[in-house]
Amino acid sequence: MHIAIAGNIGAGKTTLTSLLAKHYKWEPHFESVAENPYLDDFYGSMERWSFNLQIYFLNSRFRQILEIRESGKNIIQDRTIYEDAHIFAPNLHAMGLMTNRDFGNYETLFDLMERLVSPPDLLIYLRASIPTLVGQIHKRGRDFENTISIDYLSRLNERYEAWISKYKKGKLLIIDIDNLNIVDSPEDLGSIIDRIDAQIHGLF
User: Fold this and answer.
1) What residues does 75 pair with on adjacent strands?
2) Which of 14, 106, 148, 175 has a 20 to 30 Å separation from 189 between CA atoms?
3) 152-164, pLDDT tens digit by residue?
């Protein structure tokens, strides 16, 4: 079984992935932030490094999906390949931070990859307001995220909502996290687990 968690920067994907992996004894697959050689450069000069960054993420996510398929295990994944292709890359292109040529190249590569990947059995989308995202980003204190603007997060949120409204690849669970504290409140985490249980009973 393949469960994936989607959501904007700071929505709490990694935290929820860790908590659910522990609860269900699933194997977690995390986004490779620490090993990403382009992130620092990207946030310093988005226009120069946007294509390199997105190709790195696409490559990393595609490899991850192939490993998930081959493992035969119950996997929970932090972020999906679809978010790269439907949210982050198009947003950079729309902001004039990725050229038409590079974006066309990127889209062609993703279209080829998508033919070879299977969607997750359940997609969990973490919906969060801008104040929640900003608070979470500041709380975790990653240096390279200090320059992320409200405008950038807002644009991403709009694209997330547009993508989720049309998502038809499999089961979807939307969780509004603005009023939840899954780290300090067992009740909040329990309410999410109850909703996931209701979804995954139909997957076996």
Assistant:
1) 2, 27
2) 148
3) 899 999 999 999 9
Q: What pTM, to 2 d.p., does this model score?
A: 0.90
Mean pLDDT of the region 118-122 = 93
Say how far apart CA 55 and CA 61 lie, in whole Å: 10
Please name the residue that has the structure tokens 């979804």: 199
Provide the pLDDT confidence category of residue 59 given band limits of 50, 70 and 90.
Answer: very high
Torsion of CA 28, 111, 149, 35, to 10 degrees: 40
Domain boundaries, the chain: 2-200
Tell me the CATH number for domain 2-200.
3.40.50.300
Q: Which of 40, 41, 78, 178 is catalytic?
A: 78
- CB under 8 A, 24+ apart: contacts of 13-22: 13/78, 13/79, 13/126, 14/78, 15/182, 15/183, 16/124, 16/126, 16/182, 16/192, 17/76, 17/77, 17/78, 19/182, 19/183, 19/189, 20/76, 20/193, 20/196, 21/76
Q: Does residue 145 carry a pLDDT above 70?
A: no
Ranges of beta strands (E only) in the chain are 2-7, 27-29, 75-78, 122-127, 171-176
151 given a catalytic annotation: no
